[in-house]
Amino acid sequence: MKPSQFLAELKRRNVYKVAVAYAVFAWLIIQFATQVFPFFEIPNWAVRLIILLLLLGSPVALVLAWIYEITPEGLKRTEDVVVGESITHRTGRKLTAFTAAIGTIALAVILFEFLRVKPAPPTSGPEKAGPRITVVEKSIAVLPFENLSDDKQNAYFADGVQDTILTYLAKISDLKVISRISVMQYRSEARPNLREIGLALGVAHVLEGSVQRVGDRVRVTAQLIDARTDAHLWADSYDRRIADVFAIQSEIAQKIAQQLEARISPSEKDAIERSPTNDMAAYDLYLRAKVLLNSTTFSNQAKESYLEAVRLLGKAIRRDSSFFLAYCELANAHVRIYFFGYDHTPGRLALAEAAVNTALRLRPNSGEAHLAMAQHLYRGYRDYARARDELALAKNALPNDPTVFELTGYIDRRQGNWEGSARNLERALELDPRNLFILQQISISYQKLRRFAEQAAVLDRALALAPKDVDTRTTRAEVELDWHADPGPLTSTIEAILTENPESAETMAETWFVLALCKRDAQELNRALAVLHAEGISIDGVIFPRSFCEGLAARVRGDTAVAAASFAEARAQLEKIVREQPNYAQALCVLAMTDAALGHKEEALREGRRAIELLPVSQDSVTGEHMIALFGVTCAWTGEIDLACNQLAIATQMPGDVSYGQLKLHPFWDPLRGDARFEKIVASLAPSAPK
Fold first, then answer.
1. Are residues 340 and 423 in the same domain?
2. Quick check: 115 pLDDT over 60?
3. N or C: which end of the chain has fewer CB within 10 A?
4. What is the pLDDT of residues 132-146, one digit of tens each?
5. Distance of CA 449 to CAs 170, 482, 511, 689, Å?
6. Which of 316, 237, 234 is nearest to 277 (CA)?
């Protein structure tokens, strides 16, 4: 048969039309399987099997179209059909109609999918103040897994499964993986749809699943979804012994990476396949501690959270003495307690040192160990150069850990590199876009730079994420106190919070106390003191004991006897700390102020100068500024007005907490009021008149 005759015969026998109809029909079947099967938790291999069968069926359909022909009497072999019996022309018309119908359905599906991937319109309200997030293709958020166990105490186990999968994926440098703090906010059943979540987190894909634990068995299901289209890309379920749970998590992480076509280096593969511990009870304790360490914001409950984390991690390590990650978090908890002044003793620093050294001994090349050492060097010794070296090592192994960029931002800030600090904190926010604490830290930078409009905008972003957060609400209202010397917004905010939830009083006691001082309101001072924490007030690690606060309140009320007794009590506490730690600048600084309040002028001036020497701005631009400004208060209280104005002039020329509102209203500066030099400094910080 000539080629032209063969092609004509293909056309006559409708082989072409069968091929087109089969291709369109097969495409629709594949679309149906990929979209519907995951919903019913049908394993992914079933989809692959259907695709394989359809591919194998294609040549079979074409061969059958060539061999057989439809006649009024049914199917017959083509060579047996009499010319008059052939109805291929009518069959061809039916095939054309069938193909057109299927094609119309296919076109509708294509148009539907096209329309679904269009960008959503901008959201209304405060979230519009946030930065535009660029969505990259190889990006994913691992949402909280649903706990299907009858025992609801297994919720931490379900969180552990999700957290480990997330941690494994985050080690892959070819992926962008959103941090745990941001995704845990989508735990509730009323969470937004996946498209909204993808837009909020800046990811193209989400992983969701469930965990059911019964006895020594565990069932884990997971499904990967394109957040832009709601298309189910992969799904599977695992029913194994509880001892195999980390192997399940490793397998899921590698399957997800394969689906997203992410490259995995040999070192990354090794890290993903390494189990954190074989003791699930120890892992549960570790997760509880990690939540406490990650959830601390502006709250004055930080000390209790850190101490509880230490207790939980200690129990975890007693169960598994080789639990590497627990040592890393334990070192972090101890050094935070030391750094923030809750227990600034050599003993506490030694506990942190022992934990981080154990972590390094267990896994010397681990990114987590280098990150723990970086935090230890930064918070324990202010050794910024070595901390940066450790962060560089940690970054290579932990490409998606926002803490690397966050800690770099804090080091930048301590070294006076405020612009670099802002860039690194924003970079951390890209990996953890709903992290309230990072937003609060960015707002602190703007506050110290006295860029109050930008501080307010960042706090508005934070409130869009957590509108009921007490610390953020009061800090946002406090902007007007610092910026315009207006205590009104903070007063109304505190009263509103007290009306909504009286138990929130302790959470905002520090801010409430400062507000009452600025308003010179004796009744409000007493209310704030009644709920003030026993530790007193902490400002960037500078702790003012409760007795000092009571003395300050008594001075404002004009009760000299109570003020003297309270300051004497504070002095005894501070003198003991300084005697045990003579180089503890923050304690020396407050001791100087206390001696000034008691009339011990020479001691006060000597202690204040020593605090500045121990912690100069060149070593720590944040706390160093406090040493200068508070020495100015000490000088003012001892009658050294010239020296006080000089210190204040220095402090206001650098980023710090001295603001127009504080100078106008706070009783710290009462001895300087009316002095021309002081009033000139106050005027220099006054907000510009509206244009």
1. yes
2. no
3. C
4. 456 789 999 999 999
5. 34, 12, 20, 19
6. 316
